[in-house]
Amino acid sequence: MSQLIYKPLGDEQNLIEAWARSGSISFGEDYDKILIYLDRLDRPKWCRVLLDDNTDLVGTLMRASLGMFVMGGRVRTESVGFVTIPPHHRGKRAGVEIMQHHLREAHEDGAAISVLYSARARLYRGVGYETAGRHSKMSIPLRTFKPRTTQGIDEVSSRELTEQDLPVIYMLHSQFARSINGYLDRDEWMWNYTRGVYAKRLRQGYIFEHMGKVTGYLFVHPGGPQGPKLGNETIVDDLCFSNAPTARAMIKFLASFNSASSTAKMGIDIAHPLFDHADELWYQVESSYLWMIRIIDIERAVSQRGYSPCLAGDVVVEITDSLLRHNNTRWHISVADGKGTATQTNAPAQASMDISAFAPIFTGYSTATQMHDSDRLDADSDAITILDGLFNAPTPVMADDF
């Protein structure tokens, strides 16, 4: 393949149309819908194209700069989406090349990790990504969805969300997300995507207030029909709360949709704190799929992640990374007082692994023991025990789907 050019998508109409064609073929999306989407967002900021020497479109990619909360620490993160290769350019390693460009650009911009949902795991594993968490969609029968107790519900009021509420809910979400391992701290693109800014119409939002203070919000829209006398699904696009009375009031609010809907669908995990306040246990996982991360910079990632303040330890790990050479060395990883550091060292390695094997250990999705049993990690038993302890975390989950 000739020398390829990686650059932001600007106002070149031929490239915008080629992007829409590639997306339509790859994802089955409506061509005109993609054009509207591209017209509404900041293309130079979030869209990337890969071109051949004839300026023909070879690949597309979307990136966003956000954070991922890992054990309460905000890890600087780049999300990846809308990776497509037009059919006549497939089989020439264009997918690998556009991902390599993305990772180098993300490192230059200060990112510690990259996150994506995979349509083809082999491609992304080939450039250092690995499975590191899950995303679930829950199905909730509204006629049995009630709060466990009504305590404090009468103190909570609800109203329609307005543009003036946005700064408050952004802050509320960031505080809420910090408490859940794997949740994202959204940027402007992610919030616009969540709210439906790029869609045909904005999603309906509601504010919940307790004692005169905003303590929760949710976004909903009607889904498809479920059958005779069952009405439509109610799709919950996003929700967040900061105290128990608000969570109970939110459950009661959603249950009120049962006159028109028998089921609510929402993209939250079965371990979500909302269900701590539900009376019955009839909700179930409708689907669950996995997301992947790539460690872009070990030093940044280890220092930005959170750790249990009860733990302390040191271990020397040799990392193999053929793409991002700054990672390809031995690292002295030290954790104490809830903080971690990673510094390059010439000390003998106690453990060795490929950069992709470190990803699920880093988020807590897999343990070092599991990686060792899968022949992904070479280490003595003491080093494995230390790694298991230092990176122990609740199963990482994510509500955002992109």
Summarize the entry for a quick read.
With 402 residues, the protein is of the alpha+beta class. Helix content is 28%, strand content 33%. Strands 1, 2, 3, 4, 5, 6, 7, 8, 9, 10, 11, 12 and 13 form a 13-stranded mixed β-sheet that branches.
Task: Characterise the protein shown here.
With 402 residues, this protein is α+β, with helices and mostly antiparallel strands. The protein has helices spanning 13-27, 31-40, 43-46, 94-108, 121-125, 166-177, 188-195, 244-255, 298-304, 355-363, 368-373, 381-390, and strands at 5-8, 47-51, 57-70, 73-84, 113-117, 130-141, 156-160, 184-185, 204-210, 213-225, 232-241, 263-266, 284-295, 313-320, 330-336, 339-344, 351-354, 377-379. Strands 1, 2, 3, 4, 5, 6, 7, 8, 9, 10, 11, 12 and 13 form a 13-stranded mixed β-sheet that branches. Helix 1 crosses helix 2. The mean pLDDT is 95.
Strand-pairing-aware structural class: alpha+beta
Rg over C-alpha atoms, rounded to the nearest angstrom: 23 Å
Order of helices and strands: EHHHEEEHEHEEHEHEEEHEEHEEEEHHEH
Question: What's the shape?
Answer: globular
| CATH homologous superfamily heading of the largest domain | Gcn5-related N-acetyltransferase (GNAT)
**Total count of helical runs of at least 4 residues:** 12
Report low-confidence residues grouped into runs of 5 or more. Answer: none
| CATH class category name of the largest domain | Alpha Beta
- Beta strand %: 25-35%
Secondary-structure arrangement, i.e. CATH architecture of the largest domain? 3-Layer(aba) Sandwich
The total number of structural domains is 3
The end-to-end distance, rounded to whole angstroms, is: 30 Å
Mean of pLDDT = 95
Secondary structure: helix percent: 25-40%
CATH-assigned fold name of the largest domain: Aminopeptidase
Query: Total number of β-strand segments?
Result: 18
* Major sheet characteristics: 13 strands, mixed
